[in-house]
Design a protein that fits this description.
By secondary structure, the chain is α/β, with parallel strands linked by helices. Helix content is about 45%, strand content about 10%. The N and C termini lie far apart (about 70 Å).
Length: about 500
């Protein structure tokens, strides 16, 4: 729709045989989940308003400085083979010029703004505050943008990063990504070659397994600390110090330090420092995938950026949990050398993230300010803490004899281990018939091995129905146990 609606929305279509679409969908799901809902909804509402004839009528009219370079040795062959787009380079330069600079560009293939049918967008907040995007702001929203992201949005997020890491250190740069999920995809593509090993916290976030599998990379699990939770530095040290000399050493450690998915555990402050020291000692890069940073129910913890004296930390942030997931807005803060290669990948994959969601987010931040945003995150955290307390209370009442769990310190999940059950996959299938859904632990395990765990998300079921959900779950587990016992008796008989 770039040439007949506007390029800034980043909306296109692929019509193909279903078998191909199935595999494209699998790629999309692990790369960025889906395209920006906001731009899709505005486009759909526009089409609904003007109809097919109105759109076709419109279409007819339309046709008229860096320090030490630590990163390069870690880059994948694919990243090193990517060259900058000459057209994007010119476009990015032109977009960086001040408005008073009078340049008549015959370079890029940007559509004429006069043909864009959308004039403005009005947004109403639940707090009662309204704001409108129009004029110059709307003009830049509708047009192609710099690959790295909207200036105003990046300026705001730099303040947030500055709060996480107030001390001067290695040079860093931030790029806007289509959700943190796509940020992870871009980073891994820039760093990992076939046969490389990625160190990850166990239990493992499933999309990370899928990404590394598609790259023919190896995954080495690092256990979470059984006492305090979060990735265990003792096991990390043992793994690195005993790495086989005949094998390539790992390049990257991936850590979800706040509310690890699925365990809900935080990496304690003392362990963060120790993990970073090990990363330096063994010459690794650390990907800090931290979408639940603002959903921490205890004392604030430092980002790994706080300790990064050598430029080894690549931080991924997301607005999905504190603004909304449909906008698909995330950030990657990393050494500039890495961002350059991510930008090259981005430029040929989708040019840039959706401008409309970036603009609405930037306008929201401009309206409420840093303090207003942080106050909002506190309210969001309090909501999820209340949800967490409700489901833990229900589990204590109805499932204390069936399994064990640790109260999550952050995030949206409870990680439950059932007693005397080797795998929860069959229970998950039964549960759907009983009106309850959860993710079996097998999904979070390397090698598709059996798991007695299950992940419960307490984010969207209304608080007053969480006990009902746990009762349904408890009944399903007990039914499964009865059936298993009966089957055993029949076999024994």
């Amino acid at each position: 729709l770039s040439k007949v609606l506007c390029p800034g929305f980043r909306v296109g279509f692929c019509t193909a045989p279903p078998q191909l679409v199935t595999h494209m969908e699998r790629h999309y799901a692990v790369a960025m989940l889906h395209s920006c809902n906001l731009s899709q909804r505005v486009a759909a509402s526009y089409f609904e308003t003007v109809g097919v004839e109105g759109f076709l009528e419109k279409a007819v009219v339309s046709t008229q400085s860096t320090g030490k370079d630590l990163i390069t040795k870690f880059l994948s062959r694919l990243a090193l083979s990517r060259e900058p787009s000459p057209i994007r380079a010119i476009s990015n330069y032109l977009l960086s010029l001040p408005p008073e600079k009078d340049v008549l560009s015959l370079a890029g293939g940007a559509p004429a703004p006069s043909t864009f049918p959308i004039e403005s967008v009005s947004v109403s907040l639940k707090s009662g505050i309204d704001f409108k995007i129009d004029g110059a702001a709307m003009a830049t929203t509708l047009q192609y943008n710099r690959t790295i992201g909207l200036v105003e949005l990046l300026e705001f997020w730099s303040k947030i990063i500055g709060m996480m890491n107030p001390y001067p250190g290695p040079e860093r740069q931030t790029i806007v990504t289509t959700g943190a999920e796509f940020g992870s995809y871009l980073v891994l593509n820039a760093l990992i070659d076939e046969g490389d090993t990625v160190l990850v916290s166990d239990p493992i976030y499933p999309p990370l397994l899928l990404k590394t599998k598609a790259m023919n990379a190896n995954v080495e699990s690092i256990f979470e600390d059984p006492v305090v939770g979060g990735l265990c530095p003792k096991h990390l040290r043992s793994t690195l110090e005993n790495w086989p000399e005949t094998e390539r050493k790992p390049k990257v450690l991936v850590v979800c330090p706040t509310g690890s998915n699925p365990s809900g555990a935080n990496v304690p402050e003392s362990h963060r420092r120790e993990i970073y020291d090990l990363v330096c000692e063994h010459d690794l890069l650390l990907i800090e995938d931290d979408p639940y940073y603002f959903l921490n129910y205890g004392e604030a913890l430092n980002s790994f950026l706080h300790y990064d004296r050598e430029g080894r930390v690549i931080r991924l942030d997301s607005l999905s949990k504190v603004l909304c997931p449909g906008f698909r807005v995330g950030f990657c803060t990393a050494p500039p050398q890495l961002v350059t290669h991510m930008e090259r990948h981005y430029a040929v994959a989708m040019l840039h993230s959706c401008n409309l969601s970036q603009r609405v987010a930037a306008s929201y931040f401009e309206t409420v300010g840093v303090e207003g945003f942080l106050e909002h995150t506190k309210q969001v955290t309090q909501y999820y803490k209340s949800q967490r307390d409700a489901i833990i209370s229900a589990l204590d009442r109805h499932m204390s004899d069936l399994g064990t769990w640790i109260v999550p310190e952050a995030g949206m999940f409870v990680w439950v281990k059932l007693n005397d059950i080797s795998d929860t996959t069959a229970i998950a299938e039964m549960a759907m018939d009983n009106g309850i859904a959860f993710v079996p632990g097998k999904a979070f395990a390397k090698g598709n091995v059996q798991s007695p765990h299950l992940r419960l998300a307490f984010s969207i079921v209304p608080k007053e129905r969480l006990e009902e959900a746990v009762i349904r779950l408890s009944s399903t587990i007990r039914e499964h146990i009865r059936r298993s016992d009966n089957a055993s008796d029949i076999i024994a008989g």
